[in-house]
């Protein structure tokens, strides 16, 4: 078993494949949830270290939360299961001029300097919309906004805001039956 | 499905993102139902798990969206489960995780429940609503104060000192002047009496 594992690891290195497990099926469900923005875009992936880039493809994109899913376009719409997902954390989208697409933007990541994506849109307005939406999609950004608003409320009212959640039972004292949803969370 | 794995892997160990919670948890396998000890790191809505604490690359990640947290029925440890559900629940996984103490289980359950992007969005919207409400209230109060000041009425029951109209310089001069003339006359008569006793040489 050990030997097999070593061979597998070496193969991974040579192809640059990194296999990390993730809840793929569950993510497919998320991909079809209400999204901030969606539409058909062309895109290509650039591998900077190898000075390579993939051929541009047409895909249907959906931005759900902090994740940008893409689907293959089928005859009757889009496929049910996404082809891929790009997590948008510590990234930057900016307008870009290239020979590939007339209206395009670049997407780059602080935490992976090797990979870059170039998207092609149908209009400059579309580029603008996508750039703005992607740049405000990060989880940490949302969290910062939360912290700012919370601090603002505290300074104005002198009280830490308590935010309630849906709860099935008002069961705060009982430690035996922890409810499905937490009641009042003091954050 | 393709994922930008390299970025996620780097995110798991990066100092750019804060660690919301980390610790050892027993994770039950999907096929092999035994529990394996893994080092878990929660960052935002991503729950990474490593083979060892200081490993550079995580074994895997659980994306915490569209899931709920429940107590599990295991007897061997304080366990909880992350249940994924959707319109077509068939085939969606439930992750069973175990801790060593009741308190740890509760802490993890609390953190994971609040971890999703959706949840954070709801909280931000709620806070924004509260801030907007407060701003509206403040604005209304300020406007109310502006309206009442020009027609402010004097309370007749409050004792106020009677203020005389201010005097002009010439008025003051004549008032004090009269007093001085009187004093000089008095002085002169006093002096006159005094000198009248003296013999003119």
Write the layout of secondary structure elements.
The complex is a heterodimer of chains A (187) and B (201).
Chain A: H1 2-15, E1 21-22, H2 24-31, E2 37-47, E3 52-53, E4 57-64, E5 67-74, E6 77-78, E7 84-87, E8 91-96, E9 103-109, E10 112-121, H3 124-135, H4 139-157, E11 163-164, E12 184-185
Antiparallel strand pairs in A: 2-3, 2-4, 2-10, 4-5, 5-6, 5-7, 8-9, 9-10, 11-12
Chain B: E1 2-3, H1 5-13, E2 21-28, E3 35-43, E4 46-50, E5 60-63, E6 67-71, E7 78-84, E8 94-99, H2 102-113, H3 117-148, H4 169-196
Antiparallel strand pairs in B: 2-3, 2-8, 3-4, 4-5, 6-7, 7-8
Provide the CATH topology of the domain at 5-117 in chain B: PH-domain like
Helix percent band of chain A: 25-40%
Number of helices of chain A: 4
Distance between the termini of chain A: 47 Å
Largest sheet of chain A: 9 strands, antiparallel
The CATH architecture of the domain at 5-117 in chain B would be: Roll
Report strand order across the widest sheet of chain B. Answer: 5-4-3-2-8-7-6
Radius of gyration of chain A: 22 Å
Helix-and-strand structural type of chain A: alpha+beta
**Roughly how many Å apart are the termini of chain B?**
135 Å
Helix content of chain B: 40-55%
What string, H for helix and E for strand, traces the elements of chain A in order?
HEHEEEEEEEEEHHEE
Main sheet characteristics of chain B: 7 strands, antiparallel
Helix/strand/pairing category of chain B: alpha+beta
Assembly state of the chains shown: heterodimer
Low-confidence stretches of chain B: none
Question: Uncertain runs of chain A with pLDDT below 50, 5 residues or more?
Answer: 3-16, 164-187
Radius of gyration of chain B: 44 Å
Mean pLDDT, all residues of chain A:
80
The largest chain-to-chain contact, stated as pair and per-chain residue counts, equals: A-B, 54 and 59 residues
Overall form of chain A: globular
Pfam families (chain B): PH (PF00169)
InterPro entries (chain B): Boi1/Boi2-like, PH-like_dom_sf, PH_domain
Keywords (chain B): Coiled coil
Protein name (chain B): PH domain-containing protein
């Amino acid at each position: 078993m050990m030997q097999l594992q070593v061979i597998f690891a070496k193969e991974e290195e040579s192809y640059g494949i990194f296999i990390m497990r993730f809840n793929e099926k569950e993510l497919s469900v998320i991909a079809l949830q209400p999204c901030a923005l969606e539409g058909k875009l062309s895109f290509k992936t650039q591998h900077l270290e190898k000075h390579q880039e993939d051929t541009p493809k047409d895909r249907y994109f959906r931005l759900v939360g902090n994740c940008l899913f893409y689907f293959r376009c089928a005859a009757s719409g889009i496929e049910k299961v996404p082809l891929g997902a790009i997590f948008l954390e510590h990234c930057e989208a900016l307008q870009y001029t290239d020979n590939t697409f007339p209206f395009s933007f670049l997407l780059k990541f602080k935490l992976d300097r090797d990979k870059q994506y170039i998207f092609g849109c149908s209009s400059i307005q579309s580029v603008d919309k996508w750039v703005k939406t992607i740049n405000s999609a990060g989880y940490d950004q949302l969290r910062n906004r939360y912290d700012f608003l919370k601090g603002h409320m505290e300074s104005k009212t002198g009280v830490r805001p308590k935010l309630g959640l849906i709860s099935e039972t008002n069961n705060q004292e009982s430690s035996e039956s922890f409810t499905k949803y937490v009641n009042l969370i003091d954050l | 499905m393709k994922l930008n794995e390299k970025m996620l892997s780097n995110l798991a160990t990066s100092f750019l993102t804060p660690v919301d919670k980390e610790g050892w948890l027993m994770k039950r396998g999907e096929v092999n139902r035994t529990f394996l000890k893994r080092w878990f790191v929660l960052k935002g809505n991503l729950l990474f798990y490593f083979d060892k604490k200081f490993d550079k690359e995580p074994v895997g990640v659980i994306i915490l969206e569209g899931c709920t947290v429940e107590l599990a029925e295991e007897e061997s440890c304080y366990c909880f489960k992350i249940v994924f559900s959707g319109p077509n629940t068939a085939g969606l996984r439930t992750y069973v995780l175990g801790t060593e103490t009741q308190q740890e289980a509760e802490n993890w359950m609390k953190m994971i429940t609040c971890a999703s992007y959706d949840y954070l969005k709801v909280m931000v919207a709620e806070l924004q609503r509260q801030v907007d409400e407060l701003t509206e209230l403040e604005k209304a109060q300020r406007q109310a104060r502006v309206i009442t000041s020009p027609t402010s009425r004097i309370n007749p029951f409050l004792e106020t000192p009677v203020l005389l109209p201010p005097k002009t310089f010439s008025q003051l001069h004549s008032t004090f002047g009269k007093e001085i003339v009187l004093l000089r006359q008095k002085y002169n008569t006093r002096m006159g009496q005094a000198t009248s006793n003296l013999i003119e040489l």
